[in-house]
Specification:
With 516 residues, the protein is an alpha/beta fold. The protein has helices spanning 9-25, 34-40, 42-52, 60-63, 96-102, 119-125, 152-159, 185-197, 241-247, 288-296, 317-323, 356-359, 388-397, 415-424, 447-458, 481-491, 504-515; strands at 55-56, 69-76, 79-86, 107-112, 138-143, 169-174, 203-209, 226-233, 255-261, 280-286, 305-311, 335-340, 346-347, 370-374, 377-378, 403-407, 413-414, 430-438, 468-476, 497-500. The longest helix is centred in the N-terminal third of the chain and has 17 residues, at 9-25. It is globular, with a radius of gyration of 30 Å. This is F-box domain-containing protein.
Length: 516
């Protein structure tokens, strides 16, 4: 009986080809492959060829199908360069084999070190009315040549000729990450024209040094859902008030990655009603005031992930002040990463803001499932370690937390407050922190009595989900590693992995005991 959900012969053959392709990847010498299927029958030939040509890593296989091209090898800047030359006027029948296979290409990942002269692409476009790759959906170009920047010359020779109206994803990156201190008005016009050349572009990735141009034209890409500028280097800064205002108007943008978010470049007013549907934000390098200013211009009610790394900080208390900017996402944020630049290391002398006070602005993020914070500041004050009451408050503030990482001496635990946190955190799967102070074990006492009395006083702390407990160091009373290992084993019998970075023998002893 006919049914509208039944597959036709072509679709069935394609599914078989897909199955064969996936299966052949895991075999060293597969007995069956898409290439063999393409030769076995007409029914399989077309879907098999579609799969074989679906993704290309080079344009050379297609260029070889054009009979009017000659190839020469020349030495340019001490390296061999393959040069394609149009030997004669190209006729319609010269494109027959090329068109047969180029229409199948959906993804082109082209990475080269200048071994091919890409001017041939723009030359070929003058000999035909249709795009070189009419069905291309994704284009990724990586140019590994020194002193090659994101300029109009690069775009005109290697990018523009390969674009088409159906392109969904575009990535262009260069090797050189130096600062470019000249203008390139043509590149700015190319960026402005992207919306016309690729009207349905959804993802854009740019990486490399870029001239002194405005990135405001990117706001014309109205269907853009993902924008990654994380490794764009521009003098003085790629992300300023003008760029922020322009990008905030993109109606479909859900994922944004930006570099160099510093307050000195964000002095001009920025609308607080932009980035309406943003779901993920990645910031590489910035200072707390600049990051806070950026967060306050986001009005999205669905922002779920924020990742900030290489934060430059010169004072202690300014961090607490600017962490309050995260509170506006209390109903949506589920993942937060904050990592300071490793060169930011200073003594917090006289700085009393640590522990629960430092986390205070983030305790309102009630839906957090993953929280990682890494601060490179030195502070040794066991009296300001998390109390048992503070640990319980953390557990109650983040009832759905799964992965918690507090990598800093500003977040010290005591052994008792650690037990309290784990006991009240029923959803926690991994816990990582830098310092624990020993407030439970006296090294002069009998070790067996201590181990026996631990269960009566502290536990064991039954937890069904916590699988990993990672401690930087345990300070305080000078207990030997065996005593600490016995204590942790008794208190956390169900935790699969317990390790101490500085006192690594604790983890080794625990592993031996649990294997036994």
């Amino acid at each position: 009986m006919p049914t509208p959900s039944a597959l036709c012969i072509v679709e069935i053959c394609r599914e078989i080809c897909i199955h064969v392709k996936e299966r052949s990847r895991n075999l060293r010498r597969p007995r069956l492959s898409p290439a063999r299927l393409a030769r076995c029958s007409r029914a399989f030939s077309q879907p098999a060829l579609d799969l074989l040509w679906e993704t290309l890593n080079d344009m050379e296989p297609l260029l070889k199908l054009i009979p009017g091209l000659d190839v020469e090898s020349r030495v340019v800047d001490s390296r061999k360069v393959k040069l394609y030359i149009i030997a004669r006027t190209l006729r319609d029948n010269d494109w027959i084999r090329y068109d047969e296979y180029s229409r199948r290409v959906r993804t082109l990942r082209f990475s080269h070190t200048g071994q091919v002269n890409c001017d041939i692409y723009s030359q070929l476009t003058r000999h035909r009315q249709t795009p070189l790759l009419p069905s291309l959906r994704e284009l990724y170009l990586t140019h590994h040549v020194s002193n090659e920047d994101l300029t109009s010359t690069l775009f005109n020779s290697e990018v523009i000729p390969l674009l088409n109206p159906s392109l969904r994803k575009l990535g262009v990156s260069t090797w050189d990450l130096g600062k470019v201190e000249y203008e390139d008005e043509e590149l700015e016009e190319i960026l402005r024209s992207l919306s016309g050349r690729c009207p349905v572009l959804q993802s854009l990735y740019l990486s490399g040094a870029i001239p002194l141009i405005s990135l405001e034209p990117l706001s014309n890409l109205r269907h853009l859902t993902s924008l990654d500028l994380i490794y764009v280097y521009r003098v003085p800064c790629a992300f300023d008030s003008t760029t922020a205002t322009a990008l905030s108007t993109l109606p479909s943008l859900t994922d944004l990655s930006i570099p160099d978010v510093f307050i000195k470049y964000l002095g001009d007013p920025i609308s607080s009603e932009g980035f309406l549907v943003l779901e993920s934000l990645y910031i590489k390098c910035g200072d707390p005031p600049g990051i806070a200013r950026t967060l306050r211009c986001i009005s999205s009610p669905v922002l779920r992930k924020i990742h900030v790394e290489d934060v430059k900080r010169i004072a202690g208390r300014d961090l607490v002040e600017h962490l309050w900017a995260f509170s506006q996402f209390s109903g949506s944020l589920i993942e937060l990463n904050w990592e300071e630049d490793r060169s930011t290391d200073f003594e917090e002398t006289g700085f009393i803001c640590m522990g629960i006070e430092l986390l205070e602005p983030l305790l309102v993020l009630k839906n957090l499932e993953t929280f990682r914070i890494s601060l490179h500041a030195s502070a040794d004050n066991p009296h300001l370690a998390f109390s048992c009451q503070a640990s319980r408050r953390i557990a109650e503030a983040w009832p759905t937390m799964k992965a918690l990482s507090l990598v800093s001496q500003l977040f010290p635990f005591s052994l008792r407050s650690l037990i309290t946190l784990v006991y009240h955190h029923k959803t926690l799967e991994t816990l990582c922190f830098q310092v624990a102070y020993n407030d439970s074990l006296d090294p002069s006492s009998d070790q067996w009595l201590i181990t026996r009395d631990t269960c009566a006083r502290h536990g064991p702390c039954e937890t069904t989900r916590l699988s990993g407990l990672y401690i930087g160091d345990i300070l305080g009373a000078d207990c030997d590693d065996l005593l600490l290992a016995a204590y942790l084993h008794t208190v956390f019998p169900a935790v699969g992995i317990i390790s101490c970075f500085v006192r690594h023998k604790i983890g080794e002893l625990l592993s031996l005991v649990r294997k036994a």
